[in-house]
Amino acid sequence: MMAFKPPLTILLCAPRGFCAGVVRAIDVVETALKTYGAPVYVRHEIVHNRFVVDDLKRKGAVFVRELDEIPETEAPVIFSAHGVPKSVPAEAVRRNFFAIDATCPLVTKVHREAEIHHKRGRTILLVGHKGHPEVIGTMGQLPEGAVTLIETLEDVETLPQSDGASLAFVTQTTLSVDDTRDIVEALKSKFPLIAGPHKEDICYATTNRQEAVRSVAGRADAVFVVGSWNSSNSQRLRESAERAGAPIAKLVNEARDIEWDTLPLMKTIAITAGASAPDILVEGIVDAFAERYDVTVETITTADETMFFPLPRELREKTQG
After folding, report:
1. Quick one: pLDDT at residue 321?
2. Degrees (nearest 5) of the Cα angle 85, 89, 95?
């Protein structure tokens, strides 16, 4: 006799998971491995997801924290999707490495904005999280002291008052839309002439995933965000769910991370995934719930994504020629 399973509706957020920048970054490593063979060296995690990194390791990618860990080699050396300070490609040139830059084009856009503001004599305020690789990369585009990091509204308050004519702001691409909106409004209020991006820096995928999770958070007994703890956009997704009224909002890397004993009996849950989390991990979590509940899956779509970024020129020429 089959054991009774309580009914559970799973609201599956769409869009979720991989964005165009992550797809491109993973494709860069896989294409380099196919084209040049192993090893291929990658500075830092190509994207913030253990499952993805472990899979690429098995295929022959060697992950390092800094270039000085790489021996003299003709193998490709790839920079992660988060972007790098200018000192990194300069070091690669000095050591005659065959470097391939997998920086997300939307991060590169922020780098270019910061450089243009600097050339125009402006001090740049970067809204972001200290220590995040993207922030380190953006600040490293310009000389020491040219960029001031703004993490909170309190940071805005401590800035000296001015009309802002000599200031500009840019933002980390993976932030919470809500948090950033408050900080940007505070900057514009305090510095009426501050220059900002022509188009918002927060990437389309971050915005879309936060919007999708907000649309379901109030209907769910719990929201599960699939993603790594060190993934900024995944952390912000969990916060967005909490803010939008989810009684429980948990960040889990994969199904085995779910602490079943701590969960109440639920009737409806929502599942989404950060931009660096593969859908196979989402499927694993749906399957884990299906073992315990009589599951009905409903996809909630709030946006269609068609963004595509081509491979870097070095790899395009090899694969096309």
Report:
1. 53
2. 135
Q: Which residues are catalytic?
A: 134
- Output the pTM of the full model: 0.92
What is 224-290 written as a DSSP string?
Answer: EEES-TT-HHHHHHHHHHHHTT-S-EEEESSGGG--GGGPPP-SEEEEEE-TT--HHHHHHHHHHHH
- How far apart, in whole angstroms, are the C-alpha atoms of residue 80 and residue 52? 13
For 180, the 3-state DSSP assignment is helix
Domain 7-18+204-301: which CATH number of 3.40.630.30, 3.40.1010.20, 2.60.120.200, 3.20.20.140: 3.40.1010.20
Tell me, what amino acid is at 183? I
Spatial separation of the C-alpha atoms in residues 208 and 200, rounded to whole Å: 13
According to CATH, what is the number of the domain 20-103? 3.40.50.11270
pLDDT of residue 8 exceeding 90, the answer is: yes
For domain 106-190, the question of CATH label 3.40.50.150 is answered with no
Provide the pLDDT for residue 318: 72
For residue 316, what pLDDT band results from cuts at 50, 70 and 90?
Answer: confident
CB of 260 closer than 8 Å to CB of 307: no
